[in-house]
Amino acid sequence: MAEDDEVQDREGATLPAMAEAEGEGIAERAEPTAERPEAGPVDYDRLISDAVAPEGVTLDPELTRAGSELLARHGIPAEAAKDLAGFFARQQKAGAEGNARAFAEQVGAWRAQSEKRTTAEERGIAKDAALRLFGREELAVLDLFGVTNRAGFIKALAKAGKAMRDDAYVPGNAAVNGTRDARAHFPNSNMNP
Question: Who is most buried in 36, 64, 126, 143, counting CB within 10 A?
Answer without folding.
Answer: 126
